């Protein structure tokens, strides 16, 4: 796996991306959905790893094989699509969407190293580097994506942050 630090760092980016998209769709009362999706994005980015640990037991063994069901691409994509669809209709959609963004970000971070990620069936690996190496590239790529999406939503459209629009309009 990518190191947990890398997952947290990319999780921050996933949270920003999720929050930006939720803001674009209306964050609900007081933009609460924006905050919720950000927090859920941070949680989701480490979820595929902690979901497979039996944290309720004393031994804390893995209850399923590492990088199987919790790293399943289709599952995360389905959650993403479903929650995206419900944005603006259900208050649960924003955190679910953030969680899915984080989960997918986790898979992207795990993808380049040799163990790979079971996107559909069977693992696939980009086979670029070993675990922990080049975390910086993964983190930088995720932040670049967050910056790209964030500035598109917030600076160009000034959506979800009305005060920014006021500020810019002087
Ligand atoms: Zn993982």
From TrEMBL:
GO molecular function: hydrolase activity
Membrane-crossing segments per the record: 34-57
Keyword set includes Transmembrane helix: yes
Gene source species: Paraburkholderia sejongensis
Lineage of origin: Bacteria, Pseudomonadati, Pseudomonadota, Betaproteobacteria, Burkholderiales
Domain of life according to the entry: Bacteria
Keyword Transmembrane listed: yes
Family annotation (InterPro entries): YdjM-like (IPR007404)
Protein name per Swiss-Prot or TrEMBL: Metal-dependent hydrolase
Keywords for this protein: Hydrolase, Membrane, Transmembrane, Transmembrane helix
